[in-house]
Amino acid sequence: MLNKITAEEMSQVFSRALQHKLIQEQDTAVIFYDLSRLTARINNLVEVFPKSALHAIAVKTNPLTAILKKINALGVGLEVASFPELRLAEKAGFSPAQIVFDSPAKTRSELEYALKRGIYLNADSFQELDRIAQLQAKQLSNSVIGIRINPQVGTGHIESMSVGGEYSKFGVPLQLNRQRLIDAFLKYDWLKGVHLHIGSQGCAPQLLVNGIRTVLNFVNEINEGLQRYQQNRRVEIIDIGGGLPVSYYKDEPAITMQAYQRLIQVSCPALFEGDFKIITEFGRSIYGNVGWVASRVEYVKESEHKSTALIHVGADLFLRECYNPNDWHHDISLVDQSGRLKQVDEKDYAIAGPLCFGGDMLEKNLRLPNIETGDYVFIHDSGANTLSLWSRHNSRQVPKVIGYYENGIQFEILKEREDVDKLWEFWS
Ligand SMILES: Cc1ncc(COP(=O)(O)O)c(C=O)c1O
């Protein structure tokens, strides 16, 4: 249940969805989520870390409200990186203690709201900490508050996804601010946690662990300072962020959550000895491999060297992939109109999206079986940072989202295809 969804499984699920008439003529593209696998991934995360940990799943990777409600029932929390995400979390039924509010640009009124509700907050800067202090002076809140530290341990291989290097727009850079951070902990007795996040995808697990170890070592320094002056106080909470990389290639092995936990434990045993509460903020590693997309092929432009298959998703759903193709990849497979897999590669194809620019391509040159109008292209491992980055270019309608259990024994519509009235509302 923790492995990737194979093309054969997708073909089976798709055929069953067709038999149940869940895919209509207007459903030119459909997003699928394997809810059995999602449940297994979350249960596994909960099992691997100590019981006291709070697993705040990153809403930015998948804000579908039907899924937020489902994962609430599994006992995890949510990491929210904007005020609207915070409101989604509340509406989905998460309690203040299950919500972790990160964002480098929280306004005074957003902070005031979060403090009133007792929501966990990570300040991103000294400036924000001072703002929180002003609000705390008016009325002390139940919120637990941490500060984001950039341990400056280095970057991964996707520059735009890396935030733990020498420079980052996030957090307080550690090298030049050790004393200032210790002073902040001495000054504000409500400051109880530290937060870090090194990057998303492209960061080797060991780099993430180096970040955690650097921050943990620094926490020991802060705690020594606190012990000297305020003997009953110490940093109690370490929020290790997310960032565990996901495999996007068929045979590429992925690090498991167990292996990552072991790496952290070997490097930072103190984190697991009961003195700290751990918060995690995984997103991509929860959702990436449990979602996939099926798009109908509308036309095939044949040519001698390379033909072009025109499909119904492109940079609208795969924003990063189309704008930064060198950094991203999704495996692709092909089925006929009844969902049967086509397996014998015959020709070179470009897989092009429907949007009005030349870079709207999922693949520029890929050997695939013969593609015909009416076939469906499956785009693998599409569950994270796809719909959540939806682009309104050309006003394409957001596709239907279908959840399923046990390879399609049971289906559930998680979100209907957007209709033109909703689109009108968006642009009005
Ligand atoms: C602060 C923070 N936490 C958690 C995450 C989730 O990271 P991932 O989806 O790679 O696990 C992100 C992603 O950008 C983030 O910025």
Give the end-to-end Cα distance, rounded to a whole number of Å.
44 Å
Estimate what percentage of residues fall within beta strands.
15-25%
Helix amount, in percent? Answer: 25-40%
- Uncertain runs with pLDDT below 50, 5 residues or more? none
> So how many helices?
12
Provide the CATH superfamily of the largest domain.
Answer: Alanine racemase
Strand order of the largest sheet: 2-3-4-5-6-8-9-10
- CATH architecture of the largest domain, by name, is Alpha-Beta Barrel
Number of strands: 20
Q: Main beta sheet, described?
A: 8 strands, parallel, barrel
Provide the list of bound ligands, each named once. pyridoxal-5'-phosphate
Gyration radius from CA atoms, angstroms: 23 Å
Topology record:
Blueprint (H helix, E strand, L loop, with lengths): L6 H13 L9 E6 H14 L5 E5 L6 H8 L4 E4 L2 H9 L7 E3 L6 H10 L2 E4 L2 H13 L6 E6 L21 E2 L4 H10 L3 E5 L9 H25 L7 E3 L17 H11 L9 E4 L3 H4 L3 E6 L2 E3 L5 E4 L8 H5 L8 E4 L5 E2 L4 E6 L8 E8 L7 E4 L20 E6 L4 E6 L4 H8 L1
Parallel strand pairs: 1-19, 2-3, 2-10, 3-4, 4-5, 5-6, 6-7, 6-8, 8-9, 9-10, 13-16
Antiparallel strand pairs: 1-11, 11-18, 12-13, 14-15, 14-18, 16-17, 19-20
Bound molecules: pyridoxal-5'-phosphate (PLP).
